[in-house]
What does this fold into?
Amino acid sequence: MRILAVGAHPDDIEIVAAGTLIRFKEEGHDVYICHALNGDKGHYHIPPDELAKTRIAEAKEAGELMGAEVFTLGLSDAELIAEDLQTRGLFIDAIRRSQPDLIITHNPEDYMPDHVATSKLVRDAAFCASLPHFKTEYPAFDSVPPIYYMDTLAGIGFQPEEYVDISGAMELKAKMLACHRSQVSWMQEHDHVDLIGMMKLQCNFRGLQCGVQYAEGFISARIYPSIKPARLLP
Ligand SMILES: [Zn+2]
It folds into this structure.
């Protein structure tokens, strides 16, 4: 299969879904990680232009550790509008270029507007990418892929329906998140949070719920015509 994970910011996938992507990769699937935004507002000291370059470099370094292809839509933080048609076209092309059998993205409700907008844009783009008369850079994709919503930050308001055991992937997952050095310091300064410790705690809690050491949780989006009868997650 081809798996596309779409996060709002360059570190979102590493926090709540990278363990599952590592499992997919270990099983021989192709993994693509897309960031809608360039992360240019997530710091006190590094100016936006420089920060955007830093964060893309950090994300590519993390992706290389697991062998995923990483790309960004290059939009600015906190400026994502779910109803913008041009932006929808960018999301459509993220799908058309990677031709996924399965998409992972944010839950429709999460803690900040970029995550919420990304979730809606992915949902809308997944259908519109199949319309040949919706012209973008890439040709139409001939399927509407199923979508899985990943956990929210700190798991707030999210009750997983499916779990993936990532106990064996935690070491690599933590190394991937540690590549996001600018965010480890930002989260400490802005939110007084140890980013890697928070990630491990959340995965430990999800693991507790399903009887393993570490797990990630997901909800299958009930969207016609992309629902599949079989489990798709590892
Ligand atoms: Zn984010």
Observations:
- Residues 133 and 186 are 43 Å apart (CA to CA).
- Strands lie at 2-7, 30-37, 69-75, 102-105, 147-150, 162-165, 215-220.
- The longest strand covers residues 30-37.
